[in-house]
Write a sequence for this structure.
């Protein structure tokens, strides 16, 4: 189908974007890569009356290696972040997850911030942002605020931005020394929406024990969720096969999973247990590096 | 906001296959419709119109993108390339021959999108495995072929491309 009519704005500066959002608020939507918004508009599931495109706002198109993390501006495209040298070396979990976000042609256009703002329950990047406690930098014409990932994601397709705010950038903390990470998911295809997935980063001590685990799980019911109880259970332990299996079972009992025509809830829950177990074994055995799909 | 203003047409200028086109269109005009209806280049197809089939694949500023997921006005000023441009300058010749030889198409509806996807893929992964080819094609839907001959055609194109670009003595390659 064709989308309903709308007013179109394409400010060339951030101030211009924020001014449009101040003026049009509720009625307006930001257009970034369009990979989620335009399908919904073509299907007329969304009919915003004003579209504020940031595609001509070059000052939002950056990937910056700052002291406390990698900062992706609102127009940083997924493909560019996936191939950024600092991201590859210092934010491995983010890069592993990006391999799974849609097809190449979606990642060429889609933005990291757009995926976070969209907050799809089966999107990879919100899981990564939650696992790593990324900082969301929200901006409006009245100022900026930093929103922790846990407060940013409210629910399925819902974030905590005010109607006049945009997500100006996101900051992903660098992986600590001694850490290994793994993003793993199972879907019908290598890329495209998964049935379930997990984002895991484990920091190991000199003695080989898990010093700190960060784990977020997506299972379709709601936005991805941090598995805090599993993290507590893993801290200080040796991650062997038995510990990994137990952590998988514990996680599966904690998360919300959905049933749909791809998989029923019981299967998803079982899958979460298996994926957590595999991810833990992968990081424990040092088989880090690129994301593996199964 | 009145309906009248949102239906108002604006000038959109795009470079398509090296030639500049300016057309007056509504903001909601999809890039694929701009290319097909306003400019009249028909190699780019429309399948699903919501981003999943890949039939509408073009290049925007040098990279593949789905032209049904962009408003023409939002890519104002961009360089667009379609199958017509890529085949006219010979960049697709090897792939096109391989598709012809291996029967990599039946009705041909998906083919323009598959060719553009494969071209970008092979330019970065010149020696792909079958699994990598299949993964690269996983968001291009074909209703006819069952993919077997598409995968074969791309593998053959990679092999032949390899031959033509290898150094004459063949020493730097295994
Ligand atoms: C075939 C296909 C497969 C896909 N597979 C996957 C997948 O496997 N995993 C996945 O996660 N996604 C997938 N997607 C969705 C998509 O790739 C991402 O969700 C998408 O890239 C979102 O980013 P965008 O820049 O395109 O955002 P847009 O579509 O432009 O925007 C999405 C929403 O976020 C809002 N928004 C965007 N940027 C901002 C901002 N800076 N501030 C405030 N609000 C903002 C918009 O108003 C809109 O509501 C797929 C899409 C397609 C078409
Ligand atoms: S028509 Fe654009 S992806 Fe199907
Ligand atoms: S050849 Fe008919 S859709 Fe692919």
């Amino acid at each position: 189908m064709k989308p309903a009519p709308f007013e179109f704005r394409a400010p060339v500066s951030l101030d211009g974007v924020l001014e449009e959002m101040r003026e049009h608020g509720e009625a307006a939507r930001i257009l970034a890569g369009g990979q989620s918004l335009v399908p919904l508009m073509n299907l007329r599931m969304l009919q915003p009356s004003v579209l504020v495109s940031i595609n001509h706002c070059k000052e939002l198109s950056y990937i910056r290696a700052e002291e406390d993390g990698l900062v992706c501006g609102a127009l940083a495209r997924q493909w560019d972040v996936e191939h950024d040298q600092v991201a590859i070396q210092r934010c491995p979990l983010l890069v592993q997850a990006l391999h799974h976000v849609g097809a190449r042609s979606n990642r060429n256009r889609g933005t990291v911030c757009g995926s976070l703002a969209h907050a799809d329950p089966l999107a990879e990047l919100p899981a990564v942002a939650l696992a790593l406690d990324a900082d969301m930098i929200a901006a409006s014409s009245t100022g900026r605020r930093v929103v922790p990932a846990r407060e940013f994601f409210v629910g399925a397709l819902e974030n905590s931005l005010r109607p006049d705010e945009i997500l100006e950038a996101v900051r992903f903390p660098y992986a600590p020394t001694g850490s290994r990470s793994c993003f793993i998911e199972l879907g019908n295809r290598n890329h495209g929406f998964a049935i379930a997935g997990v984002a895991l980063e484990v920091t190991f001590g000199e003695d080989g024990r898990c010093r700190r685990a960060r784990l977020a799980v997506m299972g379709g019911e709601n936005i991805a969720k941090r598995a805090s109880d599993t993290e507590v259970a893993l801290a200080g332990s040796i991650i062997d096969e038995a510990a990994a299996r137990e952590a998988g079972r514990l996680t599966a009992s904690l998360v919300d999973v959905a049933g749909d025509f791809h998989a029923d809830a019981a299967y998803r829950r079982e899958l979460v247990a298996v994926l957590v177990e595999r991810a833990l074994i992968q990081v424990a055995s040092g088989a880090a590096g690129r994301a593996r799909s199964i | 906001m009145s309906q009248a203003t949102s239906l108002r047409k604006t000038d959109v200028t795009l470079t398509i296959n090296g030639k500049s086109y300016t057309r007056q269109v509504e903001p909601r005009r999809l890039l694929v419709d701009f290319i097909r209806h306003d400019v009249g280049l028909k190699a780019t197809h429309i399948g699903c119109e919501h981003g999943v089939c890949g039939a509408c694949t073009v290049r925007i500023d040098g990279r593949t993108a789905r032209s049904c997921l962009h408003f023409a006005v939002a890519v104002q000023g961009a360089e667009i390339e379609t199958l017509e441009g890529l085949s006219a300058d010979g960049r697709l010749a090897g792939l096109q021959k391989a598709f012809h030889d291996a029967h990599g198409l039946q009705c041909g509806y998906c083919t323009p999108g598959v060719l553009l996807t494969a071209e970008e893929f092979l330019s970065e992964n010149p020696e792909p495995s079958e699994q990598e080819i299949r993964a690269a094609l996983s968001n291009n839907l074909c209703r006819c072929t069952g993919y077997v001959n598409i995968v074969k055609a791309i593998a053959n194109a990679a092999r032949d491309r390899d031959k033509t670009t290898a150094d004459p003595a063949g020493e730097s390659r295994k």
